[in-house]
Amino acid sequence: MPAHSIVLGDVQITRVIEWSGPIRTARFIIPDSDEQVWRRNQDWLAPHFWTPADDAYRCHIQTWVLRSEGKTILVDTGVGNDRQRPQVPQFAGLRTDYLARLREAGVAPEDVDVVVNTHIHYDHVGWNTESRDGEWVPTFPNATYLIPRPDNLYFDPETAHRRRAPRDEHERVRWEGSKLVFNDSIAPIHRAGQAVLWEDVHRIDGNLLLEAAPGHTPGSSVLTLRSGTDRAVFVGDMLHSPVQVLDPRWNSCFCDDLQLAAKTRHTYLARAAELRELVIPAHWPGHGAAEVRKDGENFAISAWAAFPTAAAD
Hints:
By secondary structure, this protein is of the alpha+beta class. The chain has one domain (about 5-305): 4-Layer Sandwich (Metallo-beta-lactamase, Chain A), CATH 3.60.15.10. The chain has 9 helices and 17 strands. The strands form 4 sheets. Strands 1, 2, 3, 4, 5, 6, 9 and 10 form an 8-stranded mixed beta sheet that branches. The chain is globular and about 50 Å long. Belongs to the metallo-beta-lactamase superfamily. GO terms for molecular function: hydrolase activity; metal ion binding. This is MBL fold metallo-hydrolase. InterPro entries: MBL_superfamily_lactonases (IPR051013), Metallo-B-lactamas (IPR001279), RibonucZ/Hydroxyglut_hydro (IPR036866).
């Protein structure tokens, strides 16, 4: 079994990190959060998730590799190399050895059967494609790419005019940048005939089920794992930071529908607490995932996953 892996039921889960580091301040990323809550919990939020000295929010950009029923499935594909990303200058022109890291985990591009994009944001779809001879083409030639239909409609430049007006300049800039994301990371998948648009629910196999979980984006989704007695839920960007477990009303600055995002977050945390699902977000450093429990009207971390922190941070 590759390093940095765990097994739940019959499903092997391997963590492949594209990038790790600070992005803006914690209060910029989670603008409604209470500074005192961060301070009271800094003994476990720092240093993996937050550095108190400069209030830096820390995260991973990573892929979860699942091996289930003989198939290799990637959950989210990071930023990608050589992208124009004016909305996030920190990642414009990023170059990493992501494909080499996938190979270290035992995965060659041609081995991938399914790619799951939990939603269409730049840091979840980038390695859908790579540049060859000046064109963006699918990185994983044998894969079916599962793309949420509502996000496809929302972010496609041909139909994006139907969106509401941006709330502020930050959102306007992000939306302008999303056109580039769609054109280099989603449109080539459609042209290659490898895209499958889905909505509501989509079963991948006997262990894995995609479910709509809108709010962060209209098409945001979760991937539920149920195998034997083990349970997990890959929640994408529903939880940018574990501080949101402590108060699910706190959205990230990237959430589209604030009221719906908070409602969805509470719904899935309540389910995870009841069913003892391992909650696996897209961006958590440290142990990467956790079990949660009810704590009054909110929730708390009850146990961390077994992914090692040394290689992750």
